[in-house]
Specification:
single chain; 526 residues; FAD/NAD(P)-binding domain; 7-stranded mixed sheet; 11 helices; GMC_OxRdtase_N; FAD/NAD-bd_sf
């Protein structure tokens, strides 16, 4: 079956305006692609995938990894603004992908297996069955081509950053961050890509493209899910609008699987009457289930930036212009790294320019990042109209002890030490921002927070937990509390943020969810 024939699949054996499947997957993104692919391995099951964006097939702007920055803010980006952040940057735009494959079709595909402590932290928070020993096997099942940045893509200045950081930070060089757990280290990242042509190995490429001819897989593209349908406490389907503007209900015989991501999953729940009763009633939304945790626990990996002008152009070879990074454990009591850097082979000055800094013609950046930020935010609706974007209040740098702000100050200081260390020092002409004259902790903190940005890792807004956790939205089998026939599987269920980039964790959530569904399907594996 061609992709075009799948764009808005509606079967002729059901009444006009409705379609019925065994499972309806809302979101053809990182986890949704995994789940749809695994479910349709069983030819008895008919599965619909509702994806708000177009296909990624024959889209070199999407499939070519190094073109990722050109997707930000474009027609394939839902582009969510942030509410005013008194201690941070109020101009951050949170990119969420509107294309098959979701954010794995939009991001840099940095591929870290979550550290054992990340999974064990989930188990300690009530997510029974999600500890490191339970989750390890799911990484080995992933279909994505996960490899270290290829030798031909290892830019000379990035190589010298690795060597300078190893010396200045006193950490080991790591050849592959996924070979074994680490507490610190510097090296080139593992990526989910094909080095021979710089093509993505996204969730859609790995899990959907090879199986588009399955007659039981139905992908509804440019189709927007805006309301869940219920009979009593049981989810029966999803109300959607097709790309032609037609309103239909897609029915699920067995379950609805919400995989729309950490922004759009809680958004869909709230518009469907699932969330904090008082908030829903204030907007005139009929309450289906009072769940106060929907939209709470909004997590991220905030980071700041320090930029240098180089002594001239740097070599052009790269996988995606941020190919290497550093992890540091400042606190020996910490379970894992508590400071992280991306090294950008470009001058990343989007936010500093707002403060008056100028972008150098040639330059590089280090971006100190908070692996375990302590601030917690909230997502909420401002209107009952599903077309109105939700409010995202990350409450950046509001943690009581200012751990997050102090982490960025430490990061800038360490970045300067690395920049002064050979062989990197020989490339650099001057520090552009914040500038060498900015030295006091208060000044550094003010700068770091005002130019802070996101690496697009929202999570936690429908967090998983046990029956004693009043703010848990799903149980350890990913079922929404108090409802039947519906689960959530995406970054929104994260109880806490992994230390590392979360994409692989989301893929593993998809694999585990698919396995759970298989074990519960009549005739499925026990």
């Amino acid at each position: 079956m061609s992709q075009d024939s799948k764009d808005s699949d509606t079967t002729s054996d059901t009444p006009l305006g409705t379609t019925t499947y065994d499972y309806v997957v809302v979101g053809g993104g990182t986890a949704g692609s995994v789940i749809a692919s695994r479910l349709t391995e069983d030819p008895r099951l008919r599965v619909a995938v509702i994806e708000g964006g177009p296909t990624d097939i024959d889209r070199p702007d999407v499939l070519t990894l190094r073109r990722w920055m050109g997707l930000l803010g474009g027609d394939l980006d839902y582009d969510y603004p942030t509410t005013e952040q008194p201690r941070g940057n109020s101009y951050i735009r949170h990119s969420r992908a509107r294309v098959l494959g979701g954010c794995s079709s939009h991001n840099t595909l940095i591929a870290f297996k979550p550290l054992p402590g990340d999974w064990d932290e989930w188990a300690e928070r009530g997510a029974e069955g999600w500890g490191a020993a339970d989750m390890g096997p799911y990484f080995d099942r992933l279909r994505n081509n996960i490899v270290p940045v290829d030798e031909k893509d290892r830019n000379a200045i990035a190589r010298d950053f690795v060597e300078a950081a190893r010396s200045a930070a006193g950490v080991p060089r790591v050849e592959s961050f996924n070979k074994e757990p680490f507490k610190d280290g510097v090296g080139f990242f593992d990526l989910a890509y094909h080095p021979e042509n710089n093509k993505r190995s996204s969730a859609s490429v790995a899990y959907l493209h090879p199986f588009l001819d399955r007659p039981n897989l139905h992908i509804m593209l440019e189709t927007w899910a805006h309301k869940l349908e219920f009979e009593g406490a049981r989810a029966t389907g999803v109300r959607v609008r097709t790309k032609d503007g037609e309103e239909i209900t897609v029915n699920a015989r067995q379950e609805v699987l919400v995989c729309a991501g950490a922004v759009d999953s809680p958004r869909l729940l709230l518009h469907s009457g699932i969330g904090p009763r008082a908030d829903l009633e204030a907007l005139g939304i009929p309450v289906v289930r009072d769940l106060p945790g929907v939209g709470e626990n909004l997590l991220d990996h905030p980071e700041s930036v320090i930029v240098w002008e180089t002594n001239g152009p740097i070599p052009e070879n790269s996988a995606m212009d941020s190919d290497a990074g550093l992890f540091v454990r400042r606190d020996p009591e910490s379970e894992g790294p508590d400071l992280m850097f991306h090294f950008y082979q470009i001058p990343f000055t989007d936010n500093p320019e707002r403060l008056g800094y100028e972008r150098p013609e040639h330059g590089v950046s280090m971006t100190p990042n908070i692996p375990k930020a302590r601030s917690r935010g909230r997502l909420y609706l401002t209107s009952a109209d599903p077309e109105v974007k939700p409010a995202l209040d990350f409450r950046y740098f509001t943690d009581e002890d200012d751990y997050d702000g102090r982490t960025l100050v430490d990061g800038i200081k360490l970045a300067r030490e690395i920049a002064a260390t050979e062989p990197l020092a020989g490339w650099l002409r001057r520090e552009v921002c914040p500038g060498p004259e900015v030295t006091g902790d208060d000044e550094l903190s003010e700068y770091a927070r005002r130019v802070a940005h996101t690496v697009y890792h929202p999570a936690g807004t429908c967090r998983m937990g046990d029956s004693g956790d009043e703010l848990a939205v799903v149980d350890p089998r990913l079922r929404i509390r108090g409802l039947d026939g519906i689960r959530i599987a995406d970054a929104s269920v994260f109880p806490t943020m992994p230390t590392v980039n979360p994409m692989i964790g989301v893929l593993m959530v998809g694999e585990k969810c698919a396995e759970m569904l298989g074990s519960e399907t009549p005739g499925g594996d026990a």
